[in-house]
Write a structure and sequence with these properties.
heterodimer, A: 113 residues, alpha+beta, Arc Repressor Mutant, subunit A, 5 helices, 60% helix, B: 894 residues, 8-stranded mixed β-sheet, 6-stranded mixed beta barrel, cell membrane (chain B), MacB_PCD (chain B), transmembrane helix (chain B)
């Protein structure tokens, strides 16, 4: 039931991390979301989401190399944990099931109107 | 290649660093910088800066902001725990030292709280009324040809019209105090002589005198209403549920209905009336209507005004003056103006204001003495300060014992602020313990203290402001006593501390000696003050007054019958075997009731008339009071109604050297400082001169006095004075009472002994003397505790030196004097500083009295010796103990 809690924005973030695969750190995640979904993402929102995901155990982070453009600060890379993957799948499956349960006619009429 | 690096707005970067959770700080800052640089290339600096600011602001949200609970408070509470633990261990480790500190501080705080309560009570007189801040008393200033009078009274119309024509006056009330008259319960007619206060119905609107029963809005509205307080109800009826009962008042033909029961006044109320009658009771009377319709400037009423918030009293009083002067024209040469005195100044700042609007046999509002309030406030603070100094002295003296501890703390990273915190915390801990103990002690001693100070002080029902002040004082004292050692010890370098170097404490030593001198200076000043006060009170009670006050019964004349029958009554009284002599007079020497004053001049003289007191006396007066006649003769029988006897001072004023039946003229007389011309001038002959006697308190110089015969036209007789033999006094009193009652059943037998009455003049002085005496004892005790601690410590330091000296042949006496010398020197210096201060202060205080002792040298010598002796005893205990000890014990161990 409440086994896997994943908010809408959190789901977007974790999916994006999946896409970026090994190259996921905050700036790249932000750029990716902004370019793919054309919505602006603030660092504040992003970091809060990342922190929450990490606290839930869906993400794992490690410090990466520090570069000059970051004024010597390291990057914090994220990868999805096994539990994170389960949560993603669970989210997808619940959606799919819901989709399947919608009578075709409803969708059609809705589309027409 | 050093290209200038563009950087984001530093203010916001700093803000970000300040709030960001340290765990995430690096990463997020890196992100921000990376994004900033990317934007810098893309959009330019301004836009990048703006976006940076937006980012920082959007990051300011829970989850990213550091949590205070996790990092800060945790650390601080740990530190406090540690402070508490080490502080407590320190207290326990040196029990003598902490004991001295705590006892000293407890003593100081007890004195401080007791005196503080006393002073607070004096300062908060009449503050129990909600609108106290806005209530003012109307004061009349009158100047008749250069003779100024200030009197707290005003006329009927002033009060009546101010309300209508002066917008700032929200409400105003009038009070009258008629003379003492009988109040009688018609169902059980026992006469009670009471001072009845008469007030209009605004009285209870302006003042919040609480009613136990009755409706305060209507209690004083109807004619023939009276409210009485619980005490009076108990006395007249033996119970307090007497609403609606009737009382017969001897000044009025109709009975009064009780419409309210007043709660008894608290002690810190200037008002002490016990019954108030409605002014409307008089409204129907023709004479009242007639006199009051034009009464603008009489002195018949005490007037209290409630001003609207934010009004200026001086502009209101100017309007009052203008109001009176447009309706009333004073006599030629008379200036009249009014001012407003705040209610809160009634108790302490009414010196020089005559409490008017009362009959001459009504006591004025009792006054406090601001001088004593100041003296006591300073005393309280000084006692506390001395206790704090003790703490400072003992702590710094023992500091070298803690040098290692401080060194280690510093070496492992304690900041200076941590150490200061630790020392302050320790002093607060000690002060706190002392404070709790002190509250217990105060609770124990408060009942006897109240009894003695004639107050109703209480620690727990006192206004919360007292606690705010007290707590502030305690916290400040804790801070002061700890701060010197805190600053001193935390300043030292850890290396020198750990190397075990001796404290370089020359500066510290001089501060400490300074503090000891300061303590003893105050103690000695207080001892001298107490001694002088003691001697002065003794002088007041024992000085030759010029008449004999012992074994004298003074009986009040309260009714007309008791007055007109005086010949018979006197006759009957003198027939009692144990009565030596009886006299009737209008006033008694040493009387608290107001004396009449008159204008007097020798007939035919061109000098301006002088002012003299006057009272009536019969021919037995001199014999009864044992007043000495210097010249001329005593009164004889009836035809002497136009003769007077004057005292020496009056003779000097009138330039009379030999008595030759000079005619004098008395054109005007006064009850309250304002002279009214007599319809028929009194023209008596001077038939004798008596030796000056103190007919008033010794605070006042002997004034000119005229003794007129008992049937003089100015002042009727009011007292029987009976000199009795010292045998079976109760029996004599009973016989006297029987005579009074037989002659007038309505007259309650009221009497007092003259010496008791006279002692009342100085009862406050006696109280203050005792209070100061205790405070002086406390200061010297606390100072000695400190001295004891210091002596203990300094002898401990010199134990080895003493041992070697002894081995080399020093005597015990030599050693004791060596050890005591330094301290005694300090006490001597303190003596030197204290004497001039005490001399100046006691002389200033003695100026209050017209007749006072001279401060003699032996008072100083006694105080100095006392201080020196106590100090010597304190020190010598330690000194002797060390000096007689076997040197082997101190030298064996190294």
């Amino acid at each position: 039931m409440k086994k896997y809690q994943l908010g809408e924005f959190e789901e977007v973030v974790i999916l994006t991390i999946g896409i970026l695969n090994n190259q996921a750190y905050s700036v790249s995640i932000k750029d990716e979301i902004e370019s793919r979904l054309s919505r602006t993402v603030s660092f504040g929102a992003l970091h809060t989401a990342l922190k929450r995901l990490e606290e839930k155990g869906y993400l794992r982070s490690y410090a990466g190399e520090s570069t000059e453009e970051r004024a010597g600060r390291p990057r914090q890379y994220f990868e999805i944990t096994a539990m994170g993957k389960k949560a993603m799948l669970y989210a997808k499956e619940t959606r799919d099931e819901l989709w399947k349960a919608i009578p075709k006619t409803v969708l059609q009429t809705n589309l027409l109107s | 290649m050093n290209k200038p690096v563009a950087h984001p707005p530093l203010l916001f970067l700093k803000f970000f660093r300040w709030y960001c959770d340290p765990k995430m700080l690096d990463y997020i800052e890196g992100d921000l910088m990376e994004a900033y640089h990317a934007r810098l290339k893309k959009y330019g600096k301004r836009k990048a800066d703006a976006k940076f600011i937006v980012d920082v602001l959007l990051l300011f949200r829970p989850g990213i902001i550091r949590s205070k609970a996790k990092y800060n408070t945790l650390k601080r509470s740990h530190m406090i725990n540690s402070y508490f633990k080490t502080g407590w261990r320190n207290l326990l480790r040196s029990k003598l030292h902490s004991g001295l500190n705590i006892v000293g501080l407890t003593f100081g705080i007890v004195c401080f709280l007791l005196i503080g309560l006393y002073v607070f009570d004096e300062l908060t007189f009449d503050q129990q009324h909600v609108n106290a801040e806005r209530i003012y008393r109307v004061i009349e200033h009158k100047n008749v040809r250069g003779e100024a009078t200030t009197i707290a009274a005003a006329g009927y119309k002033l009060a009546e019209e101010s309300k209508h024509s002066i917008p700032e006056v929200e409400n105003i009330t009038r009070i009258m105090r008629t003379g003492r008259a009988n109040l009688v319960d018609p169902e059980n007619p026992v006469p009670f002589q009471e001072t009845v206060t008469i007030a209009d119905d605004h009285f209870l609107e302006i003042f919040d005198f609480p009613l136990v029963e009755g409706d305060r809005r209507t209690a004083l509205k109807e004619p023939a209403s009276i409210i009485i307080d619980e005490d009076l109800a108990l006395r007249i009826f033996n119970r307090t549920d007497v609403m609606g009962k009737n009382l017969q008042f001897s000044h009025l033909p109709f009975p009064l209905k009780i419409t309210g029961i007043l709660k008894n006044h608290p002690r810190n109320s200037s008002f002490n009336f016990n019954c108030v009658m409605s002014e409307s009771s008089y409204y129907a009377a023709d004479y009242f209507k007639e006199t009051m319709a034009s009464d603008w400037a009489s002195n018949s009423f005490s007037v209290y005004a409630l001003l609207r918030p934010d009004s200026r009293p001086d502009s209101v009083s100017k309007k009052m003056t203008r109001l009176v002067l447009t309706n009333f024209k004073p006599d030629e040469g008379t200036k009249l103006s009014y001012s407003l005195q705040p209610l809160k100044e009634l108790h302490l700042k009414s010196a020089g204001i005559f409490d008017g609007a009362r009959n001459t046999n009504v006591e004025g509002i009792p006054q406090g003495n601001p001088l004593y309030v100041t003296i006591f406030s300073f005393t309280a603070l000084f006692v506390l300060l001395i206790a704090a100094i003790n703490y400072t002295n003992l702590t710094t003296a023992r500091a070298s014992g803690r040098v290692k501890e401080i060194g280690v703390r510093k070496a492992i990273g304690a900041m200076r602020s941590n150490l200061i915190g630790q020392f302050l915390f320790e002093s607060w801990l000690t002060t706190g313990i002392a404070f709790i103990l002190a509250i217990g002690v105060v609770k124990l001693v408060l009942p006897p203290f109240n009894h003695f100070a004639n107050k109703e002080l209480s620690l727990f029902s006192v206004d919360y402001h007292f606690w705010i002040y007290a707590m502030t004082a305690i916290v400040v004292i804790g801070f002061l006593s700890g701060s010197y050692s805190a600053l001193l010890l935390s300043r030292l370098k850890p290396v020198s501390l750990l190397k075990g170097l001796k404290l370089q404490t020359t500066g510290d030593l001089s501060v400490r000696t300074g503090l000891v001198i300061f303590q003893f200076t105050i103690s000695i000043v207080m001892i001298i003050g107490t001694l002088v006060l003691l001697l002065q009170v003794r002088y007041l009670n024992h000085t030759d007054l010029g008449f004999n006050k012992d074994l004298m019964v003074v009986i009040d004349v309260n009714t007309r019958k008791a007055r007109s029958n005086f010949e018979t009554i006197k006759d009957q009284m003198s027939k009692i075997a144990s009565v030596k002599s009886v006299s009737v007079t209008s006033r008694v020497p040493g009387e608290w009731k107001t004396l009449r004053t008159v204008k007097v001049s020798v007939e035919g003289s061109t000098d301006a008339p002088g002012t003299s007191y006057l009272f009536g006396a019969d021919k037995e007066f001199m014999q009864t009071f044992e007043v000495t006649l210097l010249q001329g003769r005593n009164f004889r029988e009836a035809y002497d109604s136009s003769s007077i006897i004057i005292n020496e001072t009056a003779a000097r004023m009138l330039n009379i050297t030999g008595v030759s039946e000079q005619m004098v003229e008395i054109p005007a007389a006064s009850r309250d400082g304002y002279f009214e011309t007599l319809e028929v001038p009194f023209k008596p002959r001077v038939i004798g001169i008596v030796k000056d006697f103190h007919f008033q308190s010794l605070r006042d110089k002997i004034q000119p006095l005229i003794l007129a015969y008992n049937n003089n036209p100015i002042h009727v007789i009011d007292y029987y004075s009976v000199r009795i033999a010292p045998v079976d006094i109760p029996g004599t009193l009973n016989k006297l009472k029987a005579i009074m009652v037989a002659n007038d059943a309505d007259d309650p037998f009221e009497y007092h002994f003259l010496d008791d009455q006279l002692a009342l003049f100085y009862v406050e002085d006696a109280r203050r003397q005792t209070l100061l005496g205790w405070a002086a004892l406390a200061t010297i005790f606390i100072a000695c505790l400190g001295l004891f601690g210091l002596a203990t410590y300094s002898t401990e330091q010199r134990v080895k030196e003493i041992g070697i000296r002894k081995v080399l042949g020093a005597t015990v006496v030599g050693l004791v004097s060596l050890l005591s010398r330094d301290f005694l020197k300090l006490v001597l210096i303190a003596n030197g500083i204290a004497f001039p201060i005490a001399w100046w202060a006691t002389n200033r205080w003695l100026q209050e009295y017209a007749y006072h002792i001279d401060v003699e040298w032996w008072v100083f010598a006694a105080a100095g010796t006392l201080a020196l002796g106590i100090a010597l005893m304190t020190i010598s205990y330690q000194a002797i103990k060390t000096a007689v000890a076997n040197p082997v014990n101190s030298l064996r161990s190294e």
